[in-house]
Design goal:
The protein has 145 residues and is an alpha+beta fold. The chain has 2 domains: 31 residues; 112 residues. It is built from 1 helix and 8 strands, in the order αββββββββ. The strands form 2 sheets. Strands 2, 3, 5, 6 and 7 form a 5-stranded antiparallel sheet that branches. A 3-stranded mixed sheet has the order 4-1-8, with no helix packed on it. The radius of gyration is 22 Å and the shape is elongated.
Length: 145
């Protein structure tokens, strides 16, 4: 009976140690992340922002994407709501986010996400507003699209 208790105690200690290592890794990666501000302009003249009274044929929100590896799935970094007010040309739509790891050369893109006349999600091209930058740990970056 005592041998079984020792095995269970060892397994328990190994599980706690593994959980601590994983938690420490997550903490260190978040602490070392870069602080990024992305800013862009958008003209709502051709297609207005979605609202309570307009749910189709409108711009719903924006998404900041990592499109570095075109062979893999695009990574959505953050969704950004329409600014208030979202009428005409808005010169400064912006968002702040933490990024990394991974670090190094990254291609970051901003897309407009809208709904067409049938209410189906439509997006702008991820290659229209993009920038390739070198992102390192603990840096503060400003991206202008």
């Amino acid at each position: 009976m005592r041998l079984i208790d020792q095995k269970n105690a060892k397994r328990g200690l190994l599980a706690v140690a593994a959980a601590l290592l994983i938690s420490a890794g997550i903490f260190v990666s978040r602490v070392s992340s870069a602080n990024v501000t992305a800013s862009w302009s958008y003209d709502y003249g051709p297609m207005p922002a979605c609202s309570e009274t307009r749910a189709i044929d409108c711009i719903d929100h924006f998404e900041v994407l990592d499109i570095t590896d075109s062979n893999k799935q695009v990574v959505v970094i953050q969704s950004v709501s329409n600014p208030k007010p979202a009428v005409g040309k808005v010169d400064k739509v912006s968002t702040d986010f933490k990024y990394g790891p991974p670090f190094g050369q990254r291609t970051i893109s901003v897309i407009a996400v809208g709904r067409d006349r049938d209410g189906v999600r439509r997006t702008s091209s991820p290659y229209a507003a993009r920038v390739t930058v070198s992102i390192g740990p603990l840096v503060k970056m400003f991206l202008v699209f």
